[in-house]
Amino acid sequence: MSSRLECKQKMPRRFWIKQPLLLIPVFVIFHCIVLLMVIGCTQHYCPNHWIKGNGYKDKHNEVAVMEMRGLNKGKKPAEKVKRKQYWPTESSRTMTYDEKIEEYLSARRGKALLYGVFRQYKGYLTIAIPAKKRSDESIRFVEQTLDSLIENTYWKDFQKIVVVVFLLSDDTAWCQTVGRMLYEKYKEKIDSGFVQVAYRGRNVLSKLLPLQENESSQEKQRREENLSFLNIVTYGKNFSSYLLLLDEDVLCEKDYFIKILGFIHQQTKPNRIWFVLNFSRSSLMGQLVRTSDLMKVIKLLIILRYDLSYGSLIEFMTDLKGQQKRYRMQLFRYFNFDMESFLPKKFTRP
Q1: In terms of pTM, does the model score above 0.85?
Q2: Is 303 a domain residue?
Q3: Claim to verify: residue 53 and residue 142 sit in the same structural domain
């Protein structure tokens, strides 16, 4: 006995302190098992309290619980009526003015497309070709312009360019007929996304340019022209980095795309500021602008729809940007000077 007491006395005091602590993990595991059993019973026997107690206030869940109890047989949950919201939507109340306009335009861009596909990536150059309805309803000039672009574009550059034929007419039947004719002839290019056929449509941007009471004939003509330009600019805004405006009776030079790339690279210098580059002798045909600058043009066209024409607005923006001289390279030319087209055939000095 004396030897045991001596050993017990010799054992350190920490051993006697740690011995009761070994039971703590056992009690913790036991309490966890009991807690899980309680939760399981609550979930199985009283689902209504479990759903509401955890913050689930969905009507479908409450209906499901009542059906389990036999209180709501044969009744379906009330579906929310989807209201057709018009710009600005609920989600756009906190947006800026530019974001609201962009949301409005992107929602209507798909309605303007007749034939073609929207690519999943952003290209380098968008070429806009406005075409107006003629008395003979002919589109041979548009076809000659498309043939010239296709013939002088290398196959490796088709994925970098988008050509948009914009039909400027309120006659929907004529637009559908012309679009179908162009699709039958250029099916491969349209399906690949190189060519798109779009139309203006009266209801596409009518909310941005509302009619004014006591509108004179001159004001109406200017508003219609600005509406057409506004449709072209807003439609081709997000497809590429640059937008090039052509006409329906234009021929292009060989290797035009490579020359445009070189000319843009030549003008992109730290000490050189430019808003527009000209690739023809015409005042409007052949103008190239950055698509990042088009939102300013869109807002000014909306505000000054009666006061400034599109050409005067481009000159105003050029001066406002600080461009001191014209940068020009002649790559496109008209092949029919006598024919009236959408763009005025006014020429400037080289």
Answers
A1: no
A2: yes
A3: no
Q: 241 CB contacts (<8 Å, ≥6 apart)?
A: 122, 123, 124, 125, 290, 291, 292
Q: How far is CA 98 from CA 8, 95, 107, 197, 299, in A?
A: 85, 8, 14, 27, 9
| Cβ–Cβ < 8 Å for 149, 188 | no
Q: Tell me the two tokens of residue 170.
A: 């309120």
Tally of domains within the chain: 2
**Are 273 and 194 part of one and the same domain?**
yes
Laid out side by side, the sheet with 113-115 consists of 113-115, 195-199, 161-168, 123-132, 240-245, 287-290, 276-278
CATH number at residue 322: 3.90.550.10
Q: What is the pLDDT along the chain (350 residues), one digit of tens a residue?
A: 455 545 545 555 555 455 566 667 777 787 778 777 766 655 444 444 443 344 444 444 454 445 544 544 455 555 544 444 444 455 545 667 667 677 767 766 778 899 999 998 899 999 999 998 887 777 889 999 999 999 999 999 999 999 999 998 888 889 999 999 999 999 999 999 999 999 876 544 555 555 566 777 777 778 788 888 888 888 888 899 999 999 999 999 999 999 999 999 998 887 788 999 999 988 889 999 999 998 888 888 878 777 788 888 888 889 888 888 889 999 999 988 878 888 888 776 55
Whether 208 and 281 share a structural domain = yes
To which residue do tokens 């047989």 refer?
73
32/163 same-domain check: no
By residue range, what is the domain housing residue 302? 114-334
How far CA 17 is from CA of 20, 22, 23, 278, in Å, comes to 7, 10, 12, 91
CA-based end-to-end distance of the chain: 122
